[in-house]
Amino acid sequence: MISKLTLLSTLICGLVAVVPTYAQYQYPTAKKADQVDMFHGVRVEDPYRWLEDTASAETQAWIAAENQVTDAYLDTIPERAALKTRLTELWNYERYSAPMKIGPRYLYAKNDGLQNQSVLYIADSINDPGRVFFDPNQLSADGTAALSGSAFTEDGKLWAYGIARSGSDRTDWKVMDVATGQHLPDTLRPNRQGSVSWLLDNSGFFYSRFPDVQEGGEYKGVNRFEKIYFHKLGTPQSEDVLIYERPEDGELFVRGGVTEDGRWLVISVAKGTERMNRVYLKDLSNADSPVVPVVDERANRYSFVGNDGPVLYFHTDHKAERGRLVSIDVTDPTKTWKEIVPETAETLNDVQLINDQFVLNYLKDAYTSIRIVDKSGKPVRDVELPGIGTAGGFGGKQKDTETFYSFSSYNAPTTIYRYDLKTGTSTLFRQAKVKFNPDDFEVKQVFAKSKDGTRVPLFLTYKKGLKLDGSNPTILYGYGGFNISLTPSFSASRVAWLERGGVFAVANLRGGGEYGKTWWEKGAKLNKQNVFDDFIAAAEWLIQNKYTSPAKLAIQGGSNGGLLVGAVLNQRPDLFGAALPAVGVMDMVRFPKFTVGAAWKSDYGSPDDPAEFKALYAYSPLHNIKPGTRYPATLVTTADTDDRVFPAHSFKYAAALQAAQAGPAPVLIRIETKAGHGAGKPTSKLIEEQADIYGFLVKELGLRWMQ
């Protein structure tokens, strides 16, 4: 008798090309209103403005009708159930976070496999499997409540934590006694909270928050004028003391953290999502001390690393676009900066101060290398990593002699190592055991040439023995913004694509942080078109080198990556067989009007500026859809409680693309309920969404299961 597993393996062992067939898609009627705005003398039509009222009965009816069309389409895919079964099998593996020291104990997160949220465990030693400390799965039956923010006191006795519900960025905070598990009466009401930072004596903590938005507008209202408060334990939030604000500019973000020795409150002030900030300092040894400047101009990035008394260490791109490590003695009247580690050819991604040494995390062509230096900057050693991939962690206190780090790559599940800072020895701590053989797959880095000659890195992952005949179904993924680097990482769901002969490609585009400040700036504001050119060049490279062909190529991206997919789809609809824009920023003239959208002007520019508006309008995914165009098959994904990228971006974009489509390929939108921008999404919803996405690609790229 053939087992279910054997039968399933037979069904999914490979894919072959077939010619897809299309039906006429009857999309819900989306009325077109006579809405026109004027921007610098340009008439901008916005006929689907009514979809911005996401709570209205009319919009809710449209959402329900769109989901009905999408569900009916997905129900026609016979492979969808088998896909979900395989994805569930792949997802069902134990996974861990790198442990962190909490007082005398160790804290780590663990997911048994299919738990909707990972569970926190606390252990008395590294050899102790530990006990459950906090289980977010107990907060809601459907797993849509998630841990969102965590801060322990220096001695590990108290814990402040935030909970976000339905994927929202809004959190409410509580305080727990670590030893007893009992909650203190202290709470912070739901808000887009900044991180909590405790005083050394455990008497209270600093935190950031925005003014409350009008009731009913929690998921849409603009968030401006963030402030830092101090909460004293045992007092109501209404008595919290305002510590710092910048009333002259509502788009400034203000965040504060207490130094490890408890002496200073280090305040960072940034505008929007800029990687440039001012730095201020408050002496906590004197309650009446003023807030004084350390860096009083917003021209470069300064990330606080640690301190030795009045000597503060910063990771900065000042006079070093790829980063360097510097220090300043705040008691020195001359305020002279001292260079400890100069800029190198690689990008300095992160710095940690542990064992009175600096652990330097570099990016070399978008993958990790780790170096350790002493406090004078003298090299101690390099950390030998298992291969080309991403290493993270290396957290701890200044006097710790051990730390933990994680390593993963596109074909390597996350592995946790304990690192002895005295000897330089890495010891395996936890290793994920995913039901696949990583040796069956190859990871390769190549370089495409963009329109202006720029060298664009491209990671490729595929099954060994791949034939370069242009017939391989391929997903090309990109982001290209906000100085965020895409580094090699593992995804269990991606295995389901790879083992069936699919290629997964990741393009490191300008606008990211892979090569420092200039790389980011060359993909921001008036230079944003470079990002799209880079992505198109990556697609053309894949086609020219016979990895795939236009009919077999899908493009994917989320958030700013959703914008990328939407913009490129308008510019080169002939180049792709399918498109997957997720939670995208699609209306580039109204993005500042919702939630934290105004913060993105640092990357996109402002519609209020004539030159920047011209650039925004030229690529805005919503405004450059051309009626009568044969667009490839498109599956838009978003969620009803996304309060980072307002879901109406996707609503209006989908309605406009459906109206413009002249070809036979479907234009669908999948609108998740009780979910947000992506963080904290329960495992069950992740599996269902991924099964739908792969099912869509199986059908629209012209594939069928081999039988």
Set down the secondary structure blueprint:
Blueprint: H1 4-11, E1 15-17, E2 36-39, E3 42-45, H2 57-74, H3 80-91, E4 95-96, E5 100-102, E6 105-111, E7 119-123, E8 131-134, E9 145-152, E10 158-165, E11 171-177, E12 183-191, E13 197-198, E14 204-209, E15 227-232, E16 241-244, E17 252-258, E18 264-271, E19 277-283, E20 291-295, E21 302-308, E22 311-316, E23 324-329, E24 337-341, E25 347-354, E26 357-364, E27 367-373, E28 379-383, E29 390-393, E30 402-409, E31 412-420, E32 425-431, E33 441-449, E34 455-463, E35 474-477, H4 492-498, E36 503-507, H5 517-521, H6 529-544, E37 553-558, H7 560-571, E38 578-582, H8 601-604, H9 610-619, E39 633-639, H10 648-660, E40 667-672, H11 683-700, E41 703-705
Parallel strand pairs: 35-36, 35-37, 37-38, 38-39, 39-40
Antiparallel strand pairs: 1-41, 2-3, 4-6, 5-6, 6-7, 7-8, 9-10, 10-11, 11-12, 13-14, 14-15, 15-16, 17-18, 18-19, 19-20, 21-22, 22-23, 23-24, 25-26, 26-27, 27-28, 29-30, 30-31, 31-32, 33-34, 34-36
Helix pairs in contact: 3-4, 3-11
Task: Walk me through this protein's architecture.
The chain is globular. The chain has 11 helices and 41 strands. With 707 residues, the protein is α+β, with helices and mostly antiparallel strands. Among the domains are: 41-89 and 436-705, Alpha/Beta hydrolase fold, catalytic domain (Rossmann fold, 3-Layer(aba) Sandwich), CATH 3.40.50.1820; 96-136, no CATH class; 344-432. A hairpin with a 7-residue loop joins β19 and β20. It starts with a helix and ends with a strand. The strands form 10 sheets. Strands 33-34-36-35-37-38-39-40 form an 8-stranded mixed sheet, with helices on both faces.
